[in-house]
Design a protein that fits this description.
Blueprint lengths: L9 E6 L6 H13 L4 E6 L17 H12 L5 E3 L2 H4 L6 H11 L7 E5 H6 L6 H7 L1 E5 L15 H4 L2 E4 L4 E4 L5 E5 L8 H9 L10 H10 L11
Helix pairs in contact: 4-6
Length: 232
């Protein structure tokens, strides 16, 4: 799908991971294969700037979410955790993360930021979207119930004119920076972190929604409202 040399190409999957679940892992794996990425770095945010903690729907602590990510990907040789946002003070803005990753590995090409189609459509409201799309390539993954067919349908208006679209809207190329966006169709796993948190509030099972390696830790953590220690 990508005409560049893929040697050493790195994918980035950022997010609150509140908590990480099988949908995150499957998306990372399918994008890694589709774009022939060397590895995928999971980047838990410390302070997500676009989400506010709600006492009725809390965000687990950064160390707890980091621990779950580390346990969830353990044993996959192509998956790694990057602490860049956990260790950096202040809100976890993507533009700062991408700039830092480009600076620390200047000889490599742009990383590939993996993002779901819903979040992709909202990126015009993120900090410095014009700079974001010039710093990295993007892999936009499909999300159920719909199946996005054309990037032009969801690309933020603020950056639309910076791109040329090819292959029926499945590829977009930045006119100045040379970065690109690929639409990657993935298995439709209708799993969300909010669904998992709601299940815990209601005392229902989260088995087969999250990796078994972290299920009991989530159930016993007490970080989500209404969480119980009972096994299900």
């Amino acid at each position: 799908m990508n005409e560049r040399t893929n040697e050493g190409r790195v994918g980035l999957l950022g997010g609150t991971f509140n908590p990480i679940h099988l949908g995150h892992l499957r998306a990372a794996e399918e994008v890694r294969e589709a774009l022939a990425l060397d590895r995928v770095l999971f980047i838990p945010s410390a302070i997500p700037p676009h989400k506010r903690s709600d006492p009725q729907d809390p965000i687990a602590s950064a160390p707890q979410r980091l621990e779950w990510v580390e346990s969830a990907i353990a044993g996959h040789e192509a998956f790694r955790v990057d602490r860049i946002e956990i260790d950096r003070p202040g809100p976890s803005y993507l533009v700062d993360t991408l700039a830092a990753i480009r600076d620390r590995e200047p000889a490599k090409g742009p990383p590939v930021f993996i993002v779901g189609e819903d979040a992709f459509a909202e990126m015009g409201e993120w900090r410095a979207p014009e700079e974001i799309f010039a710093l990295a390539d993007f892999a936009v993954t499909t999300r159920p119930p719909g199946q996005l067919d054309d990037l032009e349908d969801r690309i933020p208006r603020r950056v639309r004119d910076a791109f040329d679209f090819e292959a029926g809207g499945r590829i977009a190329r930045h006119k100045d920076a040379g970065t690109r966006i690929d639409l990657v169709r993935i298995t439709a796993l209708d799993i969300s972190s909010s669904q998992i948190r709601q299940a815990r509030r209601e005392g229902r099972s989260i088995r087969f929604l999250v990796p078994e390696s972290i299920r009991e830790s989530i159930e016993e953590s007490g970080c989500y409202a209404g969480s119980t220690t009972g096994r299900k």
